[in-house]
Amino acid sequence: xxxxxxxxxxxxxxxxxxxxxxxxxxxxxxxxxxxxxxxxxxxxxxxxxxxxxxxxxxxxxxxxxxxxxxxxxxxxxxxxxxxxxxxxxxxxxxxxxxxxxxxxxxxxxxxxxxxxxxxxxxxxxxxxxxxxxxxxxxxxxxxxxxxxxxxxxxxxxxxxxxxxxxxxxxxxxxxxxxxxxxxxxxxxxxxxxxxxxxxxxxxxxxxxxxxxxxxxxxxxxxxxxxxxxxxxxxxxxxxxxxxxxxxxxxxxxxxxxxxxxxxxxxxxxxxxxxxxxxxxxxxxxxxxxxxxxxxxxxxxxxxxxxxxxxxxxxxxxxxxxxxxxxxxxxxxxxxxxxxxxxxxxxxxxxxxxxxxxxxxxxxxxxxxxxxxxxxxxxxxxxxxxxxxxxxxxxxxxxxxxxxxxxxxxxxxxxxxxxxxxxxxxxxxxxxxxxxxxxxxxxxxxxxxxxxxxxxxxxxxxxxxxxxxxxxxxxxxxxxxxxxxxxxxxxxxxxxxxxxxxxxxxxxxxxxxxxxxxxxxxxxxxxxxxxxxxxxxxxxxxxxxxxxxxxxxxxxxxxxxxxxxxxxxxxxxxxxxxxxxxxxxxxxxxxxxxxxxxxxxxxxxxxxxxxxxxxxxxxxxxxxxxxxxxxxxxxxxxxxxxxxxxx
Length: 646
Known about the structure:
single chain; alpha/beta; 10-stranded mixed β-sheet; 7-stranded mixed β-sheet; 19 helices
């Protein structure tokens, strides 16, 4: 306006009608627009918009801009200067700015602070976080508002003292961001949009960004929905003109990019996402999953399908299960799979196993696998591949299934056969108490059979890393191990100094024996305790003396008592094992997020083999590292550079 340019203000509600906006643009020959991304999306959906307008400048803000939207706008509106702006009302609007260009990123930056503005990315203690690490965005400077009218409590909560200034204040935005490699801020979502699924923290914005990047997707929103089995993710999308989207296909694509707990259990395709009065997506107006038609229902056929459908419905808390339904698409996960197997075995489904459920997620396929005979290798899952490369064998963590490796396996299986072992603690042989050497021998036999060219690659995570190392040792002279990847393998804590007297141990043993008299696992516990070294017995005795308690919820695979037994059994195997040295190239990865038990340190693999490299995955924790996108990319790169022979 200071330049004498005419200002055109749309009427109330016009911003929700793309046809009205386009008519205004044509009538007044508008060259500059200020939009929210959802309205830019609607504008581009209008056929012929390129020829009907002479837009030169566009400012977009108010919500995250998808990378696909940035790319389409720059491609179709030639010569357009597109600015992605960020700024809450409390900072008198825009405080960061990014001049858009299509750089191939999945996240469009919100840029750097404008003049007389400070931006900090801080942790919960108001400390700066390193580049690439998510934190809350704090804004300070001349544009900062004074507070909320007649709300001193809210003002004190959101406007805080600037720890880096001289009596200045900062505004807590509640937005999760990070600095990228170019020093630009990337918006990751609202902190109040963080959810926990199965105990794992998920940023909904990250899932939305991955879904938005899929071909044909125009609009995206992902929400957490509470249900009988806990919270689950549901995605809502709309399609670009000329594209047909299918929710199941989108789920499969996301499964190759994200860990299973981050893949929405359902993706709903809508003609358009509902908008509120501000032109932003109205999450409250989204249809609930219960009101959505997910496809043609086909009832179970036969006794096995019917029995499985009843169990699935009970465990998943759904009204009905059809023969074409997929356990994981209905919200199932590894822990619920354990419950299904346990109930099935108790109900007489003798051929049901965790391996089969993980391999055959569809009800009809699972029933067919159960009635078609027992698998030749009940602890092994293989993914078909057209590739002829070196086969990869994955060793899971303690009590982990193949599901955690699924994103990596899906990425790799086009180039090579991929196999993964089910954790010994989840198989029918879990009570056998083998040595680590004996267990690895079973795996080595499978690998010899499935490596026709005499070459293999091994990848082990956590406890699986110990088994992968010993398996590699046993394969020496039989199969060439050209790659050994070890992922966040932690050594057991160093035993504490001897603090228990003989009297203490005798008293603890009596208390424990009395407690075990009430356990359905008494015989298994006593057999295990009889095979433990004193260094492993003492922590158990200390716990009993301190608490006079023991988990007594039985031998079910997901019970607290069984998980405790399995952990102690694994500790027995690892403490009795001597690693030694093998001439095998070792690649090591370490989770950057500190473990819950800081006494458990990563092993120094340089002492045990030819350490090729060690990588730290900063934003991954121990349980999430193998499905982390950064780890998967790093592992694939390492796998593509096999050892040079000779």
